[in-house]
């Protein structure tokens, strides 16, 4: 694998992350909601919904050349908010503190390709799925691994342990995890031979390959669908807001709007199946 290509892609990712974490959010001067009101009441009173996202995850939520937040989930969230008569007040945050930002009252909801898990449901509520995530496993071109059926406890996978894909690698395939923080570091571990593979979103891999055509990277045969993905995380006990949000999600899946947004970025309809609740 070309170190130069990895470095270039890594530099891009780092620059986007710095932009995301340097106060690029639109929440300056926005007061926190008053205690005692429901989230829906607060949102309608202010005309805004406070939303957290990573802000450096191509093509879902990232900063463009003009440092404007854009991407699949940015467009979806703004579409749904508009259906609720609201504007979105964005706050980019790093993954390791993103969900905790809801507890810290930095924002009210999180959209970040999140899967619904039992552990997360203990503290938060979730909308119905709005898109689905398809995973693939990447290896070096000369790897003896050929398909997902080759992945087992003898294989080392570079993953962020708390991510959806990290849990799938460990729990579903029984692989030993080599701890990493994000796609590019994971691919670097695979390239160096410290890991055999890494599982991530097929869209992320496609973009990486497009931007790094000389990189010696191959995707194994077979697809992995992340269960419970992808839903919007909402602070606990806000069923009235979730009901309104779910109605908007159902409407925009049915009329094809969410599918058109994903096609715009990746050429494929990744909207959630309407019975996937």
UniProtKB/TrEMBL annotation:
Gene3D superfamilies: Periplasmic binding protein-like II. It holds the Pfam family SBP_bac_3. PROSITE patterns: PROKAR_LIPOPROTEIN, SBP_BACTERIAL_3. Residues 48-269 form the Solute-binding protein family 3/N-terminal domain. GO terms for cellular component: cell envelope. It is found in: Cell envelope. Residues 1-19 form the signal peptide. Keywords: Signal. Belongs to the bacterial solute-binding protein 3 family. This is L-cystine-binding protein tcyA. The gene is tcyA.
